[in-house]
Queue: 2 jobs
Job 1
Amino acid sequence: MGVSFVPVARVGELSPGSMKEVDLGGRQVLLMFVEGKYFAFSRQCPHEEADLKTAGQLLDGTTIRCNNHSYCYDLRSGECTLPKGAAPLTVLTAEEKGDEVCIRLEW
Amino acid sequence: MAYDLLIRGGRVVDGSGLPSYVADVGVKDGKVVAVGKLNDSAARRIDATGLAVSPGFIDHHTHLDAQMLWDPYGTCEPQHGITTVVMGNCGLSLAPTRTGIEDAIVKSFVRVEAIPRFALEEGVKWNWHSYGEYLDNLEGKLGINVGGLVGHIAVRHNAMGEDAVERKATGAEVQKMRGLVLEAMEGGALGLSTNRNERHMREDGKPVASRLADDGEFFGLCDVLAERNAGVIETILGRNKIEHFEFYHELAKRTQRPVLWQSLQHRWVEPNLWREQLAAVEPIFRAGYQAYGLSHTVPLVRHFSLKECQVFDEFPTWKNLMFLPVEVRKQALGDAETRRKMRADFADPRPTNFHRNWNIPKVEKVFKTENQKYVGKSIQELSKMQNKDPLDAFLDLALDEDLATVFWNANNGGDWNAMGEILRSPYVLVGTSDAGAHVQFGADFGYGTILLGLWVRERQVMTLEQAIHKLTFHVASIFGLQGRGLLRPGYAADLAIFDPKTVQAHEPEWADDYPAGSKRMVQGCVGLHYTIVNGTVIHEDGRLTGDLPGHVIRGPLYRQQKAAA
């Protein structure tokens, strides 16, 4: 059991809608600043593994679409919203801690 | 008789499904002219001793409509023994068109099939209007044979302009569409395709045009095929639902044309769906109608170690562990309290895509000699051998090898028995290569060579003869590809020569051969020695010859028109 806060960016580093690539434990994660909040999620689309760095397109609000097959995911929960019920996008908790944006990992 | 080509001593698998036999194959003027013990002279001889000689494979589910305009081979189709392709699936074709609607068609291809816009803008010149004129553009420039379905999306835009993505059609517009479908069929289309998949939008976020059609419109278009007794109807309705079979039944009964639906695959999270689908489609065939389900041959297998693993991301504790630094992760995976939380994750009854069945993941590769005995064993078997709880056995083995142990898992297509039943079913059409689509995300040209290598040789779910039938004559019969799909005298000399002992597709890889200097994914193959189209070798041991013997394959209404003329 434990909790870890991994700093991945400086507050203010990301402009709205921009992405930052982050390596966490050997896995590739994208950090995005949307509507005043930070969202961290796996770079790989869970449907057929397209790279969301290039295939991901932010739609209205917090929905990202993978342009490989148009699967859509809610960045808040990872839920696949189109088509409903498909495998979710892996999302991690990102939060500001002082001047830093950290990923919170709890186990 | 002096042959153009004589293939000596191969094992002839003729596409009928009947037992294979050793024979020579004589080819002249693009056709097979003799099969047996042949001693006549020939301009070229190929020694096929120890190899199989079969009809060339027919890839019926491609999106090569654009690629064929700049790539006469539809690469990498010939590398996998494919001699004929069918374009125009899922409602998408590049014709019929008219000035001003081209971009609406491009928008649909770009989003639905993930074909880069710049490739379409550079590679498609739009010097046609009708479907027949589009096919005319390909004549004489092909390495493989090409046929196509006319797509509902282009038809709808043609009749309605941008209103096609905004509203239902009027009666007059449906009539106009019927005329366009008839014109396309008379120009050589092999059938009609539509798209009702709720995921399928255009580049601008609007639904693709065919999604706005009601049953009345779609049936009206299909009636054109029914009235002429010609062509197939290809559909994509989106998520697999048993309710869809009422629609397929009604459509097949109304038109008496072969209906194709997508798709059918074994998934561990819905382990009985494929069986329910086959049970649902059986009454349609029993009633004398045809509604074939499309199935893929590529299981979604994941090879993973706990050094880098996404398999368990749906479980919060597991997920967070997999993003920790490896040394911290190792410490955590050995901790009893962490394991308790991991078990609790698995016990949560909410539905997940991971099957939570320890009988499925297997030990694939170990690094310590003393662990060799576990290779090939499921985690359940491992736990019995070690007299431990499965989770403990799984994690302890990984920790013993510094997390390097490689495991095998499949959420889709991993049940050999289920896949065997699916692939053998007479109601299933094998192959959804999607060739020409999603070009920067994957490459499934090798669905046929995977069928031969994985499912025939390794897993023995069907005979070589059954598999070749599925890849050739089964498809030719459904699509009405006259004179193709069998290795018999009088049939086109579209042939594949391969080694059944070694044939197998490679993993996809990147290539720099797409328009505007861009990249795409390609797929090679081993054990496929020759691909022959209309009697001419186009692919020889990994090398394209440069010859262009391919034909445009036009459908029955075109042939009737031509005969009448």
Job 2
Amino acid sequence: MPSTAPSPQPNFALDLEPLETHAFGNRSLTWWGIVAFFLIEGTAFALAIAAYFFLMSWDHAWPPPPLNPPDLLAGTLFTIVILLSEIPNTLIKWAAEKYELPRVRGLLVLMSLIGLVLLVVRAFEFNSLNVFWYQNAYGSAIWMLLVLHTTHIVTDWVDTLVLTALMFTPHGTEGRRFVDCSENAVYWRFVWLCWLPIYALIYWLPRLVN
Amino acid sequence: MSERTYLRDGPDLTGAALHDKLARTWGDRPGFWGWAASVDHKSIGRRYLVTAFVFLALGGALALAMRLQLSGPQKALIGPDRYNQIFTMHGTTMMFLFAVPVMDAVAIYLLPLMLGTRNLAFPRLNAFSWWMYVAGGSMLWIAFVLNAGPDAGWFSYVPLAGPEFSPGKRVDFWAQMVTFTEVAALAVAVSITATILKARAPGMTLARMPVFAWSMLVVSLMVIFSMPSIALTSAMLMADRMVGTQFFNPYEYGDALLWQHLFWFFGHPEVYIIFLPATGFVSEIVQVFTGRQVFGHTAVVLSLVATGLLAFGLWVHHMFATGLPRMGYAFYTAASMAVAVPSGIQIFCWIATIWTGRPRYRLPMLWVVGFIVTFVAGGLTGVMLASVPLDLQVHDTYFVVAHFHYVLIGGAVFPLLGAVVYWFPKFTGRMMDERWGKLAFWIALPAFHLTFFPMHYLGIMGMPRRVYTYPAGMGWDTLNLISSIGAFLFAGGVLVFVGNALWSLKRGEAAPADPWAAHGLEWTTSSPPAPYNFAHIPVVTSATPLWDPERPVTRGLRVEDREVLLTTVFEARPDLREPSPMPTLWPMIAALATTVLFVCSIFTPWAIVIGSVPVGVALIAWFWPKDRGPEGEPVVD
Amino acid sequence: MRRGAVLLVMALGGCSALYGPQSSAMGQGMESAHIGNLFDLFLWVTVPIYLGVMVFLALAMRRRQARVQGAARPEQEAGWRLGLVLFAVTSALILFGLSVATWFTDRTIARAGAGPALSVEVIGHQWWWEVRYHDPVAGRELRTANELVIPAGATVKVSLSSPDVIHSLWIPNLAGKQDLIPGRTSDVVLKVPKPGEFRAQCAEFCGLQHAQMALPVSVRAPGDFAKWYNAGLATPPVPGGGPEFAGYSLFTGRQCASCHNIAGTPASGQVAPDLTHFGSRTTIASGVLPNTAASLDRWIADPQRVKPGTQMPQVPLSPEERAAVVAYLESLK
């Protein structure tokens, strides 16, 4: 059934045809989806951190004896690599917003490799925590923080791989795919920004607090 | 961008010819697969509604079983094990499987129509969320039927719900159901937030947006900030139970109260997530049936926002008996009292609207009056509960049971029933029968009070909650019997309401586009709306579009491809033409894969690793762009 | 709680349970009396507010008879806006006042409970109460279970803990409730002017038999309390003969001894209620049955039938053996 317009010929007041069909930044609908995701995951991280502090607040050593804090090497190496990865990440964003396809392709391949390297280093991190998740609540808390963050690394890495593949197909010339590349870069920033407080809590707080 | 010419709506393509093309573009294929692949918000909204009401019936049946068992002292109808499962399932079903999804249901159906667009943002995510909701609810109920239902309360306190005191899978089913429903609710919240902020009709500034849309914006943000808490803590509980973490084990540096903090950080906003959409219903209904815009529109909107914010600062009032520092408690008393002020402001504004308008007491208005009469009482017992010393007497007693049923049934279900009557013609094209509707109302309202008012006394008189029986000679017998009788009468009233709805679906009087002389955009569409909602996206110049003499529209959207309009956040200036997804089965398939992952991970943690592969594949297939269509306009040669 | 609640109740037909042994309306302890007064205040504030809102609504609904066309005119809106502001400010002030009254009550209760106190420890178990009295004499401790006896007029500080799940001790006639949380200790202060018999109940869901985890609370004149206390410290003699001795042999020979403790006998189990002076308790199984020979026989014969899910197993005993055990336990005064 047609809609009940009051007059036979509707009053056409605005012409939408000249509008574009894709845009970068907060004009893009998926940008809002990604920001909502940041809020959700960010809240989850904030609460996990709050839980960590809550468990730490009892009157006992942290980590509880006889445990040692996690070794610094793997975690610090991870932090350095992920911070450096922001350079190609930002370059991707700029290139995507200028529709520079070859550049975007190359940098995405680089980011995929960096992701792989990070996951390998992350495996070493798990191995050097000096505690298992089942030993006590301290172990459970730092494993929880590390597992939560690793999930983000994995999902963003898979996202990046898919996007890389996509940019090498004919779809790679579409405007909306460049928007995807730009937004993927923004998501990566969230991933390493969340890492910084977690790095501090896992590796440094146990050393500073006792 | 592109060289092709596309068919667009406008002076050359309008009326019946436009309708044919739009209906073909936006319609679903018939049959089961067409339904399963639908991404139409109206189809998904209807599914959500039906599913939510099924769970309401199931949860209600559990309530009747409980009232039967408690109708007298030392009854042997239901033993403690089954009873503990029943009260856990009642609370869990009502809170997770009915109350939040039903509000989402109405929002999913109505918001695009109210806002003047053709679909929600992220329609496939919406479809996915319904499959997840159904899967989680079904898993829980199948477990219950198989005597593996959770039995540690809807709030599942540790250490009782932990590995030592709740062995087996019962609590794991509860925790995983939470994961399902939380994923669904978060998905809907993201979709609704993006829709409200970016997809409003041109000219619909935030100030001109319907109050219900404001309530859903506030609620969606509340979901985004509160649901992660219970997702996190239920995952921690499953980890304690299945892989040996020690989060809640005080003997290994864990803390039982950590659970309570994380649960109630979600749990308190949850009840406002349920209540605020109902206030949106009330505002919409009161406006239409008094013929004026709600008095104090700005105050009402600010009250919604204030309630949403304050709701995050109250959770410790569920923990007043746990022995936390009294100085901290004082803050939560003040905050818990303060939250009554915005709700009171809304009540004042609604009554003022009635006073200064031209009220018509059709059935939706009756439910609004029933709401005011009931909710205000519940709000005032809430003020009592906010006071620490008073709470220390009535906490965990039937006084609290009375309070929250007054605010949840009175404050959310009564407006919901009014909303169902009000929007029934829009959803179905038929009117609900007014006389049977009034009968249902006049049974349900007094029966509600008969059921729950005595519980205030029972609580004061020493009857604790969550008890499968009570001794004779306590003086509780008569009030319990009265309450049980009331419960059955209330169920009768609800049955009459539902029967009326079902009968009216087939035999109700046919409804025009605008049977109530309303003012919102949804009433410009047909009843029920066409698949494309609006033939031409409307342009809005006030908060009451249908009461304006002029009704301008836009032109220029594509007609043979799905296209919606994005506008700017505050002023709603037209900004982008956004392609909207065609029907697809990938959301259903992804939900199936996720369901397998979630359910299997109750039995082995390896399911998380193995199960994520099919989930990943389904998600990639879902998001992989389709062959170069109109939205695939190349920007590079 | 008293006057306000009583008036309301009488208006609705009256209920005798308001005056019962498990009612928060009685205000028979220091804390519950203060809370009762606060509740009265809240009632006197909230009930008129409710009635006022209903009157406001009724007037709004009635006014449709004298209706003018269209919505309120702007100058009327100004009046309503003022009304809204007044309403908001008034509600905020009232709520602030109720908050102040709350804090004041809290402080009064805390102050009144200060000072030297008799120290009792209540430990919650699934689904019974362990009670220990700390004696000033080192090494001496009165242990009992499923009863709390305190002197009238004195300040009693009851510290609360639990080794298993969260419980909550609620003696509505005397005080508000406090949770017993594993890993933490909290306390509740009792100060009861007059003797009386009360009933407490667990008020935090703790599993299968949460509904039947009650605690008889007996407040006695100081002299009576001292008598009870000293009798409690004494070790009961081993029976000389007769059915009591037969029961004693069975009790210490069978699995009873592996769970229960009776001072002066080989029975020294720590996981079940201490039964040293069981004969002088008023109830069996934490308030589920009255302490009579017939009920005790019923309990021992089939605990699961009385309290399904209880940890107490069914000990195979012939009716005569059971009668002997009953006789022995009832002799433990």
